[in-house]
Amino acid sequence: MAKSTRGYCKYCGKEYTRTGMLKHLQSCKKRMEVCENSKKMSAYYELMLYGTYNKDYWLIIQIKENATLECLDQFIRDIWVECCGHLSAFDIEGVRYEQIPDNDFLWEKPAEDMSHKLKEVLEVGMEIGYEYDFGSTTELTIKVVDFYKAPEQKENVTILSRNNPIQFTCSVCGKNPAVWIDPIKMYNEDPFWCEECLEKYENGELDEEIEVEESGYLLPVTNSPRMGVCGYEGSDFYPNQFEPDDM
To answer: In this protein, which residues make up the domain named Plasmid pRiA4b Orf3-like (predicted)?
Structure first.
């Protein structure tokens, strides 16, 4: 994986690492100008989301205080994880909030649903856990970075920055950009395929020792911590490359 992936600021288009972007957003001149020229303001939380076990994938967003956990869950599904309609859950200060709460418990506290508004459950400084799919689980960490007034937006969620797509090299030829990943081999050293090598493989032109595993299918390379897991093929709503307003 790449180290210190970078992303663009929504407002000015400058490029920073995840931690650098958090600092930049506090003083971005273009962002300040937008705020100064706005006639209507609303209260927002600023959240930083990243893969718990792969921090190269990250998002910085602002979301309305009156939005619900269900709204945040849907955003995460739409941009990063949705593949087969799996269940999901937040862990906030030891309380579990599930999409469909399971009340069949013995010693553990029962889970609550996701109808709670963010202003009811979030505080600046909190670190929240998120899980999607309780089998082949994708785990995320969400940090509550700030709470402030910002120009009113139509949508509940505004993306402030996102890591640029990570560039992988084909494991077969070692030179072309990879566009496919073998989910069976994803934890090994050679899971990636480019279009050229895949075409050669399908035409029987590669060494016999090189093969797609028994699964018989490949998944697309995506800008998501769920890449290569289950049947994840990428987002239907957001492009892999985040485009700032200034570009």
So the answer is: 58-155
Q: How far apart are CA 87 and CA 70, in angstroms?
A: 12
pLDDT digits (tens, 9 = 90+) for 213-244: 544 689 999 999 999 999 999 999 999 999 99
**Are residues 35 and 120 part of one domain?**
yes
Residue 78 resides in a domain: yes
- How many CB atoms within 10 Å of residue 180? 20
Between CA 26 and CA 15 the distance in angstroms is 15
One domain for residues 33 and 65: yes
Kindly report, residue by residue over 117-157, the tens digit of the pLDDT: 999 999 999 999 999 999 999 999 999 999 999 999 999 99
20-23 own/partner pairs: CB under 8 Å, 24+ apart: 21/60, 21/160, 21/161, 22/48, 22/60, 22/145
- Residue 114 shares a structural domain with residue 203: no
Q: State which residues form the domain around 119.
A: 6-163
In a domain, 43, yes or no: yes
The answer to whether 141 and 164 have CB atoms below 8 angstroms apart is no
pLDDT at 202: 87
Q: Is residue 243 part of a domain?
A: no
- List CB contacts of 200: < 8 A, sequence separation 6 or more: 206
Q: For residue range 15-55, what is the model confidence (pLDDT) as tens digits?
A: 999 999 999 999 999 999 999 999 999 999 999 999 999 99
For residues 101 and 112, give the distance between their C-alpha atoms in angstroms, rounded to a whole number.
6
Asked if residues 57 and 51 have their Cβ atoms less than 8 Å apart, the reply is yes
Pairing of strands 138-151, 41-51: antiparallel
Q: Find the distance separating the first CA and the last CA of the chain, reported in whole Å.
A: 27
Q: What are phi and psi of 29, to 5 degrees?
A: -65, -40
pTM, 2 dp = 0.93
